[in-house]
Amino acid sequence: KIPFEKIEPAPKYRGFHTLDWKKCVGCNFCGQICPARAIEMTWLEVDGKMEKRPHPKVDYGRCTFCQFCVDVCPTGALGFTEAYYLSTGGSEEDLELFNWVPIHPDKVRELNEKFGDYRFPVEKIEKKADGTYVYHLRDGSTIEFKILGYGIRPPKKPTPTKPTAKTAEKKETKPAEKKENVKQAEKKEGA
């Protein structure tokens, strides 16, 4: 019947994940218990500030919807909704939807109540040139953030390097050495 007819899921049907980013402490219990290894801890930057803890990113290409991750979450930040329908055209852009950082449960619930069809809450995931991800939700709103890195430990900040006196000397001597080597090679060829 899908996609032509809507099928009502059973109460507490194990569908897509939700995540309250403020409650998540980044403990990685969800990633450790996941039998399919579908969860990866992700460091995010929201509104120019790095989140204090990493958040889980779920790969629905691997997820078995067992919801062990939800059961083990100590703060109740990770949850699930009855929304279960994710179908795409199979293009590379569409496949981005299968790997996402879950959004707030209230927003997912609001979208499901508005549309009532149990579809995935995100229509499109856009990645900008500066590394910003934009989730285009079904109601036209957006969520923006940057992914800074993966893992339990915070990503290392790139440190700007200043040229030292030694590197400046090397840069100056190298072109001169090359000129001398070329002149010596020309003399050998002429002889």
Write the layout of secondary structure elements.
Layout: E1 17-19, H1 29-33, E2 39-46, E3 49-50, E4 55-59, H2 68-72, E5 78-80, H3 92-95, E6 99-100, H4 105-115, E7 122-127, E8 132-137, E9 142-150, H5 165-190
Antiparallel strand pairs: 1-5, 2-3, 2-4, 2-9, 4-6, 7-8, 8-9
Describe this structure in words.
With 191 residues, the chain is an alpha+beta fold. The chain has two domains: 17-154, no CATH class; 162-191. The protein has five helices and nine strands. Strands 2, 3, 4, 6, 7, 8 and 9 form a seven-stranded antiparallel β-sheet that branches. A two-stranded antiparallel sheet has the order 1-5. Strand 7 (122-127) and strand 8 form a beta hairpin. It starts with 16 loop residues before the first strand and ends with a helix. The relative contact order is 0.16.
Q: Any idea what the radius of gyration is?
A: 25 Å
What oligomeric assembly is this protein in? single chain
Class per helix and strand makeup: alpha+beta
Number of helices: 5
Topology as H/E string? EHEEEHEHEHEEEH
Helix content: 25-40%
Biggest sheet statistics: 7 strands, antiparallel
Q: How much strand content do the residues show?
A: 15-25%
Number of strands: 9
Measured between the Cα atoms of the first and last residue, the distance is: 87 Å
The global form is globular
Q: Tell me the number of structural domains.
A: 2
Low-confidence stretches: none
What is the overall pLDDT average?
A: 84
